[in-house]
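Work Package 3 (structural annotation) set out to generate three-dimensional models for the target panel prioritized at the project kickoff. During this period the team completed the workflow that converts sequence records into discrete structure tokens, so that structures can be stored uniformly alongside our sequence database. As a representative example, we reproduce one entry of 259 residues exactly as it appears in the project archive.
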Amino acid sequence: MLTRLYWILSSQFGVDPRVFLRSLRGLPRYVRDLSRFRRMYSGQLNLLPCLHDWYEEGGGASTKSEYFWQDLLVARMIAAANPLRHVDVGSRVDGFVAHVASFREVEVFDLRPITASIPGVAFRQADFMNPLDELREYCDSLSCLHALEHFGLGRYHDPLDVNGFETGLANMARLVKPGGVFYLSTPIGVSRVEFNAHRVSDPRDIVTMAGRNALALTRLMVVKPGGSVEDLPGDAAHLDRLAAERYALGIFVFRKSPD
């Protein structure tokens, strides 16, 4: 309950209690250092306090974030595979897409417009709640990271659809050529909708839906809260265990049947 309240306050109302407390803790140090620096410095001095950085990890970002790990791991897999055409649907442009665009061209499809011109990124606005027959067997490599769980919840201008996850998965699967690879990350655990943030899906259901669209699981990685990463067999026993957990991020790698 406290974790949920923290998320609502910080992400939806812009009030981050942890940042506030760290800044309050850093205030005495700031005042002390300012006084010392003034005695050493004779030029113009303006005040722009940065109070909580003293307590953060190096690098300016947390390596405990599931976004950090999914973006890094999937980008490395794509670099190793070196596909002819890689397409992304809905992933973060300032994270995963930028990773991939640093070493190859990538085509990005999103329901919402992207107005910036980004080197290495070709953008096309598209709604994957509807079949896009002109894109059938369009690419040999496809990614959708932390996006499919939102389909059908209305959060990003998409229409409400209780079957949005399965509909989106089926429409994306059509893009992949026989023998091609689909990288999918999505929250997994006890099946539920946390409206209107996202779905948490039973991993067994995801594998079953993928199978109905000629996609076979070849690799499963799981990012746990706190940033620990496991590379797991996608067998029934491990899927059963993951289905009983409250929350994790599943990174599924599917290959489309060559038939």
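DSSP finds seven helices and ten strands in the chain.
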